[in-house]
Write a structure and sequence with these properties.
The complex is a heterodimer of chains A (451) and B (259).
Chain A (H helix, E strand, L loop, with lengths): L1 H11 L2 H37 L4 E5 L11 H10 L3 E16 L17 E7 L1 H4 L5 H4 E2 L37 E5 H6 L7 E6 L14 E11 L4 H6 E5 H8 L7 E6 L5 H14 L4 E5 H4 L1 H39 L1 H10 L3 H32 L1 H12 L20 H27 L3 H6 L2
Parallel strand pairs in A: 3-8, 5-7
Antiparallel strand pairs in A: 1-9, 1-10, 2-3, 2-6, 2-9, 4-7, 5-8, 6-7
Helix pairs in contact in A: 1-13, 2-11, 2-13, 11-13, 11-15, 13-15
Chain B lengths: L26 E14 L2 E14 L3 E5 L6 H8 L7 E6 L2 E2 L5 H11 E4 L11 H12 L2 H21 L15 H13 L5 E5 L7 H18 L2 E5 L3 H5 L3 E6 L2 E3 L6
Parallel strand pairs in B: 3-8, 3-9, 6-7, 7-8
Antiparallel strand pairs in B: 1-2, 1-4, 4-5, 9-10
The chains are: A alpha+beta (451), B alpha/beta (259).
Chain lengths: 451, 259
């Protein structure tokens, strides 16, 4: 009993114990907050990336032995036959250059944004997309977020547009196809719903003639906008109806990619592997990847950033734990006579060592728990704190234009945070074993004679 | 095993001792031919050269000797704080030579109480907590919950006997030298040890306080039946003991004039 009692008394009697405790609390708080924020970033990023794609993407490979045009149904049939698949839709993909109708500028090297006018055109069937992708979720109220009084009339039919809404009256009777454009692109080009947009692409089967290639241009009318939060995607992607896409590009392809939605809780990697096997058995050449495979570099970068920050801050926590070591080393030096007295009272070497090891555990444990509480509190209220700092000190600590989120995202993992505290306490006890062992091994007679 | 019957035959070898003033109880401690050497650089100093001693239950023994004679060394050996280089030491019939450090600590906690010249109280604890410390050491956290009340009452009763009941919550820094030594006596007695080892218990106190402390020490040890060993330079204090031994050239002898 004396171990717990004396350790608490020794700790409470020393201001340096409180300092060490505070240092550990601050370090643990910082680690928990940063991990929570980085996990929040990762979660939001995954959510955004996930939102622009499907669970699994099937890309038919160019194989002379396989007639891709004729095999869409075969691909879809194999995919749909998988018991874990909830839905499938086909997309056509083609790069293009955009320009505002009525202008002549199609420069790829725009001074504002290097890829300003280059987009990826996705030909979709909005009805088929509905149950498979989250496109309808990202459809913006017409005119953008700042103009919410005009709502999308029907999210399931985003290409619908009353021709009276076409800004250029001369185009109202032209029967032009419609297009969905990302909000950032709309802002950059100063476009609104009903404006016309021209897109230039190379038609199917074009060949180089006299060092040049024939391009095909089509004028589209903007029927709506979308914003996923993933800037590159929003800036560099437009959606057009699949039939209009085929008419414009002249492609005979029925699909460039199959987007597959799996049932909730499905193991995507397993479904991917099983689909691969099924295509192989059917002698269909295809690349099958999950949405995480497709964005592994991007997601990996965010994850890597989180891990590096976590590692650096974990080192910081370990560094603060060494304060406990210094504190205990000094304490053992100060308490040499006490060690002799305790020996004279009948305390064993283990008991004496335990007193000092427990001091380290108290400091690290209490500091860690305090850090846990503060860290979780700060993580949960980080936007309140951010707003207060920004308004009080007139500084910007979170630029919402840089990120796809309006607030700092956090994801608090209680188990991980508890593990951080336990790890901190264990490490502290471990490094405190050295001074504790020194105390335990002290000769009681020498200790009693210590001046 | 606390009686002499339990000791081997060699334990009854003739010892140089003063005649007892009162009937002797069973042997609590039997030391035979204790030797202790220290190395000081190249030099070896032989502090004890075969000190032998029997301590009987309830008796008081004063050990005198010049400074550096090895009185404190002998006391540390008797209290199991140190190990002799050779010789035998039995406490309550238990031979200490073969005991592990942990077992020696347990035996020390159960059978020995120390009173030091410089009190040696823990400054972070109150007088009462200091006095309770040996009981705390002897119990684990779970046992302590059932023992705590009795240990506290016993420590308070001892402090009360020593006139310190009103100072029980005070830290050592707030106590006078005499009060600190009385707390140290209460601490030494709280575990009800058979053996009370006092190293110059009045050596740091003024004459009047020394007399009071000595009175209380002898009275308490007599009342509670402790065997009292006093290491002292104070002849007057030594004279109050049942017998006095002189540590001279590493051995225990009778002082001149005693037979």
């Amino acid at each position: 009993m004396f171990r717990l009692f004396l350790a608490s008394r020794y700790m409470l009697a020393r201001p340096v114990s409180y300092l060490a405790m505070c240092a550990i609390a601050v370090a643990v708080m910082a680690l928990i907050t940063v991990i929570s924020v980085m996990n929040g970033f990762l979660m939001e990023t995954r959510h955004i990336v996930r939102g622009t794609t499907a669970d699994i993407i099937v890309l038919p490979r160019q194989d002379p032995a396989v007639n891709v045009t004729a095999s869409r149904e075969a691909f879809e049939a194999i995919v749909a036959a998988h018991p874990e698949v909830a839905g499938v839709c086909a997309r056509l993909v083609r790069p293009a250059v955009v320009k505002v109708h009525g202008t002549t500028n199609t420069s790829l090297g725009d001074s504002i944004f290097s890829s300003l006018n280059q987009v990826l055109v996705l030909g979709i069937d909005p009805v088929a997309e509905g149950p498979v992708t989250d496109l309808t979720h990202y459809l913006e109220p017409v005119g953008g977020k700042d103009n919410r009084d005009i709502e999308v009339t029907d999210r399931s039919q985003p290409f619908l547009l009353d021709r009276r809404e076409i800004a250029d009256g001369s185009l109202r009777n032209a029967g032009l196809p419609h297009v969905l454009v990302g909000e950032p692109r709309m802002r950059t080009l100063n476009l609104s719903r009903g404006d016309a947009l021209e897109m230039v692409t190379v038609p199917e089967g074009s060949a180089l003639e006299n060092q040049s290639i024939r391009a095909t241009t089509q004028t589209f009318v903007i029927s709506g906008t979308f914003e996923t939060g993933k800037h590159d995607f929003d800036m560099g992607t437009v959606f057009v109806p699949r039939d209009d896409f085929r008419a414009w590009t002249g492609t005979k392809q029925q699909f460039s990619e199959l987007y597959v939605r799996c049932k909730d809780g499905a193991d995507l990697a397993r479904v991917r592997d099983e689909l691969k096997s099924a295509f192989n058995r059917a002698r269909l050449a295809a690349t099958v990847e999950t949405w995480m495979d497709r964005h592994s570099v991007y997601l990996g970068a965010v994850e890597n950033e989180r891990n590096i920050l976590g590692f650096v801050l974990a080192l910081f926590v370990l560094l603060t734990c060494t304060i406990t070591f210094s504190m205990l080393t000094m304490m053992v030096q100060e308490k040499v006579r006490d060690i002799g007295i305790l020996s004279a009272m009948g305390a064993g070497a283990g008991g004496i060592g335990a007193v000092f090891a427990l001091c380290g555990l108290y400091v690290a444990g209490l500091g860690g728990v305090l850090g846990l509480l503060l860290g979780e509190l700060l993580s949960s209220k980080i936007n309140v704190v951010k707003d207060w700092i920004e308004s009080t000190f007139d500084i910007q600590i979170f630029n919402r234009d840089v990120y796809a989120f309006t607030e700092i995202p956090t994801s608090i993992h209680h188990e991980l945070n508890v593990a951080i505290v336990v790890g901190t306490a264990c490490f502290s006890v471990f490094i405190c074993l050295l001074p504790a062992l020194r105390a335990a091994r002290m000769d009681p007679v020498e200790a009693l004679r210590h001046e | 095993m606390s009686d002499t019957d339990a000791l081997p035959a060699e334990a009854f070898a003739p010892l140089v001792e003063a005649p007892p003033r009162k009937p002797r109880g069973p042997v609590v401690l039997a030391a035979r031919d204790l030797t202790r050497r220290y190395r000081m650089g190249q030099e070896t100093i032989e502090v004890l050269r075969g000190a032998s001693l029997d301590l009987h239950a309830g008796e008081s023994v004063a050990i005198m000797g010049r400074s550096g004679a090895g009185k404190s060394t002998l006391l540390h050996l008797l209290g199991l704080l140190d190990r002799p280089d050779s010789g035998s030491l039995r406490i309550d019939g238990v031979e200490s030579a073969g005991l592990s450090r942990a077992a020696r600590a347990r035996l020390r906690n159960a059978s020995v109480g120390f009173v030091f010249q410089f009190y040696h109280l823990l400054p972070e604890l109150s007088a009462l907590e200091n006095a309770m410390l040996p009981r705390m050491i002897s119990h684990g956290p779970l046992e302590w919950f059932s023992e705590r009340r009795e240990a506290r009452e016993h420590a308070l009763a001892l402090l009360d006997e020593l006139g310190l009941a009103s100072r029980a919550r005070h830290r050592p820094a707030k106590l006078s030298g005499g009060e600190r030594q009385r707390v140290a006596i209460a601490r030494a007695l709280v575990g009800r040890p058979r053996l009370l080892l006092c190293d110059e218990p009045t050596g740091n106190l003024d004459e009047r306080t020394s007399a009071v402390i000595a009175d209380q020490l002898f009275a308490l040890s007599a009342r509670h039946g402790h065997t009292l060993v006093l290491v002292t330079h104070d002849a007057e204090l030594a004279g109050r003991a049942d017998r006095t031994l002189l540590l001279h050239e590493g051995r225990l002898d009778l002082p001149q004039g005693q037979s």
